[in-house]
Design a protein that fits this description.
By secondary structure, this protein is an alpha+beta fold. It folds into 5 domains: about 170 residues, Rossmann fold, CATH 3.40.50.300; about 80 residues, Elongation Factor Tu (Ef-tu), domain 3 (Beta Barrel); about 100 residues, Beta Barrel (Elongation Factor Tu (Ef-tu), domain 3), CATH 2.40.30; about 60 residues; about 120 residues, Winged helix-like DNA-binding domain superfamily/Winged helix DNA-binding domain (Arc Repressor Mutant, subunit A). The protein contains 19 helices and 34 strands. A 6-stranded mixed β-sheet has the order 2-3-1-4-5-6, sandwiched between helices. Strands 7-8-14-11-10-15 form a 6-stranded antiparallel β-barrel. A 6-stranded antiparallel beta barrel has the order 16-21-19-18-22-23. A hairpin with a 5-residue loop joins strand 2 and strand 3. Helix 14 crosses helix 16 and helix 18 packs across helix 19. The longest helix has 21 residues. It starts with a strand and ends with a strand.
C-alpha cells in the first residue's frame, strides 16, 4: 500500500486545522492551550485513505509566527504540501514564509486550498485566485491547482480529495533501502506501554523487536510495538507517520530533535559542509561568521556560518559554507535544512548538506571548493571515490558508507562493484567489507618503494628490511591486511622480493667491497676457529673494533654463515652442522641424551651447552622430556 505524507502550510487562522477535521474527522489541536486560544501551537497529526487506496499521513503545522520552528519540524519529510490561504484575507506574511520553508526543504509537489469561501462572494473569490497565481510565480507551486473549499459547508471537500489523490499518485514512493531514520517530533508515555515516540519514517524500514539507538544521546532500546495511523503493525516503512513504543528508554531521556536509527549506523556531528540558498527576501547580505538558527529534521541548533570562497552572500545568491553548530545533530548528505534569524519573519535561507563529517577548512582553498562542487554535482561513483580518498589508508566499511555519502546501500553495492571492475577501488577485507581508493593504495606502494630504497642505501650489506619495521613506515592506520596486499601487488609486479620475514627491492644484491670483504673474512675466521665455544658479541666487538662490524655481522647472519643462538651469542653454521650430525647419531644409538651427556658431547661449559640445546629444540630437531632430550618424531 502506497504511503504519502501531506503537510499543511499557511498563515494563522486560515483554517488548516478545521479543514483537516472536515477531511478526516480528527481534531489535531490536542492541547488545552490550543483549545482555549483557538490556535495551533504544536504539531498535529491525522490520516486518511484516498479513493485510489493511497494512505495519507497528515501533519498539521502551526501558523503563528512564534511557532514557525514547530512548522519547520513538521515540514521535515513531507511529500505534498497543501498551502492553505483564506479567501477573505489572501496571501499573508506566514503564507510567504511557509512557502519559502517548503521550497528550502525540497518539497516538489503540492496545491493550494483556498479556504473560507463561504465568507466571500464570487468576485472576491476570483480576485483571491488571481492574487495567489501571481504570488506563486517562480515557485514550485506555479501552475498548481487552486481548490476553493469550505470546511463549514463542505463545498469543495470532494474536489480537495480528488486533487490530493491525483498528486499523490505522482509521488515517487520512498525507498525502504535507505538508512533507517525517524526524526522524533513527539515523545510521551502511555499507561501500560511506557515510552512512545512519533515521527515520519523518512528512510528504511523498522520491525517490532528490533534494537534501536536514539541519537545524539546514544541511548539504546528495543521496539516493543509499532503503530501506523492508529493501527498496530509488525513493520513500518519509509513514508509513514509512525509511532514506536520503546523498551529500555525513559520519556525524560528523549526530546524532539532526536533521531531513531539502527545501532551504530550513524554518528552525530557538529560541523557540516553545505550549499546555502540565501532567500531573495532576506533583508541584508549574509556575512561570514554570522550566527543563525539551524533547523534540520526536527532539531534546532545555533550555527556559525563560515562562508567558503567569499565574504558574504547577497539576497538571492547561493554559495558553499561550513556550519559549526552549538550542539550535535544527525545529518546525512542530501538532507535539507533551514536557516532562520531572530526577526518576526525570520526565515533567511537554507540548503542542502554536502558532507556531514568534514574537516575544518581554510576559507579560500581552491581544492576545498572543487571537492564541494564534486559532492554537489557528482554521480554516486564520484562521491564514493571522493569519500574513500579522504579516508586514506583506513578506508571505509561498506556498512558505514550510507551515512558517509547519503547513498542507499543497494546503490553503494552496485557502484563499488563497478569501481572494482575498473580497478578504482580495492576490497581490503572481504569479511568486513572494507574498501580503499586505488590512488591511496598506490601512494602507500610508493612509500614502501621509497623506504626500501632508503634502507638499501643505508644498509647495503643487509638482505632486506624486516616486514614489521617496514610496515611501521606507513601511516598507523595501515593494518596487516592492507600491508599484505601491498606486498603481494609489488611482488607480483616484480618490484620487490619477500624472503621469510624480510623484504627487499628485487634489484637489490648484497655484495662486499674490498675492505668489507676482508672484515667479513676476519670475523668468519674467528668463529670458525672458536668452533663450539664462540665469543659473545661483546667479546667480538672488543677484539675487532672496526667500522662496519655490525653490518658485516648482519651480512653473515643473512647469508646463513652465522647462526644466532641467543641475542648476544652467535655460532658458525659449519660448527653447528658438524655437532648436529654427531648429536643425531648419538640419539639414534642411545635414544636420549641428558644435559650432562650433551655437555660431554660438545666439550664446552653450560654457557654454550644450554643455548645450543635450546636452539636444537627451537628448530624442532630435539624434544625436551624432563631433563633429557630425544629426537623429535624419532
Amino acid at each position: 500500500m502506497k504511503q504519502v505524507i501531506l503537510g499543511t502550510a499557511g498563515h494563522i487562522d486560515h483554517g488548516k486545522t478545521t479543514l483537516i477535521k472536515a477531511l478526516t474527522g480528527i481534531d489535531t489541536d490536542r492541547l488545552k492551550e490550543e483549545k482555549r486560544r483557538g490556535i495551533t501551537i504544536e504539531l498535529g497529526f491525522a490520516h486518511m485513505e484516498l479513493p485510489s487506496g493511497i494512505r495519507v499521513g497528515i501533519v498539521d503545522v502551526p501558523g503563528h509566527e512564534k511557532f514557525v520552528k514547530h512548522m519547520v519540524a513538521g515540514a521535515a519529510g513531507i511529500d505534498i504540501v497543501a498551502l492553505i490561504i483564506a479567501a477573505d484575507e489572501g496571501v499573508m506574511p506566514q503564507t510567504r514564509e511557509h512557502l519559502d520553508i517548503c521550497t528550502l526543504l525540497g518539497v516538489k509537489k503540492g496545491f493550494v486550498a483556498l479556504t473560507k469561501i463561504d465568507l466571500v462572494d464570487e468576485e472576491l473569490l476570483e480576485l483571491a485566485k488571481d492574487e495567489i497565481r501571481e504570488f506563486l510565480k517562480g515557485s514550485f507551486l506555479e501552475g498548481a491547482p487552486i481548490v476553493p473549499v469550505s470546511a463549514v459547508t463542505g463545498e469543495g471537500i470532494e474536489e480537495f480529495v480528488r486533487t490530493l489523490d491525483g498528486i499523490a499518485q505522482e509521488v515517487k514512493e520512498r525507498s525502504t533501502d535507505g538508512l533507517l531514520r525517524i526524526p522524533i517530533d513527539r515523545v510521551f508515555t502511555m499507561k501500560g506501554f511506557g515510552t512512545v515516540i512519533t515521527g515520519t519514517l523518512i528512510a528504511g524500514k523498522l520491525r517490532t523487536g528490533e534494537q534501536v539507538e536514539i541519537l545524539p544521546s546514544g541511548l539504546r532500546g528495543k521496539v516493543r510495538g509499532i503503530e501506523v495511523h492508529n493501527r498496530k503493525v509488525e513493520e513500518a516503512v519509509a513514508g509513514q507517520r509512525t509511532a514506536v513504543n520503546l523498551l529500555g528508554v525513559e520519556k525524560e531521556e528523549i526530546k524532539r530533535g532526536d533521531v531513531l536509527l539502527r545501532p551504530s549506523s550513524c554518528e552525530p556531528t557538529q560541523m557540516l559542509d553545505v550549499k546555502i540558498h540565501y532567500l531573495p527576501s532576506s533583508p541584508r547580505p549574509l556575512r561570514n561568521g554570522a550566527t543563525l538558527r539551524f533547523h534540520i529534521g526536527t532539531s534546532m541548533e545555533m550555527a556559525t556560518v563560515i562562508l567558503l570562497g567569499r565574504n558574504e552572500l547577497a539576497p538571492g545568491e547561493e554559495g558553499y559554507a561550513q556550519l559549526r553548530l552549538s550542539g550535535p545533530v544527525v545529518a546525512l548528505p542530501s538532507d535539507r535544512f533551514v536557516l532562520r534569524g531572530s526577526a518576526a519573519i525570520q526565515t533567511l535561507g537554507g540548503g542542502v548538506v554536502l558532507d556531514a563529517h568534514p574537516e575544518r577548512h581554510k576559507r579560500f582553498r581552491a581544492e576545498v571548493l572543487q571537492s564541494l562542487g564534486e559532492l554537489e554535482m557528482g554521480d554516486p561513483a564520484s562521491v564514493l571515490l571522493l569519500h574513500l580518498k579522504r579516508r586514506g589508508a583506513e578506508g571505509a566499511l561498506e556498512g558505514a558508507l550510507p551515512a558517509l555519502t547519503g547513498l542507499a546501500p543497494s546503490v553503494i553495492k552496485e557502484t563499488l562493484r563497478g569501481l572494482r571492475e575498473k580497478g578504482q577501488v580495492i576490497l581490503v577485507d572481504e569479511e568486513k567489507g572494507r574498501w580503499v581508493e586505488r590512488g591511496v593504495f598506490e601512494k602507500l606502494g610508493e612509500i614502501l618503494r621509497e623506504e626500501l630504497d632508503r634502507f638499501h642505501q643505508a644498509f647495503p650489506l643487509r638482505a632486506g628490511i624486516p616486514k614489521e619495521e617496514l610496515r611501521g613506515k606507513l601511516p598507523p592506520e595501515t593494518d596487516q591486511r592492507l600491508f599484505n596486499l601491498l606486498l603481494e601487488e609489488l611482488e607480483g609486479e616484480g618490484v620487490i622480493e619477500q624472503e621469510k620475514e624480510l623484504v627487499r627491492m628485487a634489484s637489490h644484491r648484497v655484495s662486499l667491497r674490498g675492505r668489507e670483504r676482508k672484515l667479513a673474512e676476519e670475523v668468519e675466521g674467528i668463529f670458525l676457529e672458536a668452533g663450539l665455544t664462540p665469543p659473545t658479541l661483546k667479546e667480538l666487538r672488543e677484539r675487532v673494533s672496526k667500522e662496519g662490524l655490525e653490518e658485516v655481522i648482519q651480512f653473515l647472519l643473512d647469508e646463513g654463515k652465522l647462526i644466532k643462538l641467543k641475542e648476544d651469542l652467535l655460532i658458525h653454521a659449519e660448527s653447528l652442522g658438524r655437532l648436529k650430525e654427531r648429536l643425531v647419531s648419538y640419539l639414534k644409538e642411545k635414544g636420549k641424551i641428558s644435559t650432562q651427556e650433551l655437555k660431554a658431547l660438545i666439550g664446552a661449559s653450560r654457557k654454550y651447552v644450554i643455548p645450543i640445546a635450546e636452539y636444537f629444540d627451537r628448530i624442532k630437531l630435539t624434544l625436551r622430556v624432563g631433563d633429557e632430550r630425544i629426537l623429535r618424531g624419532g
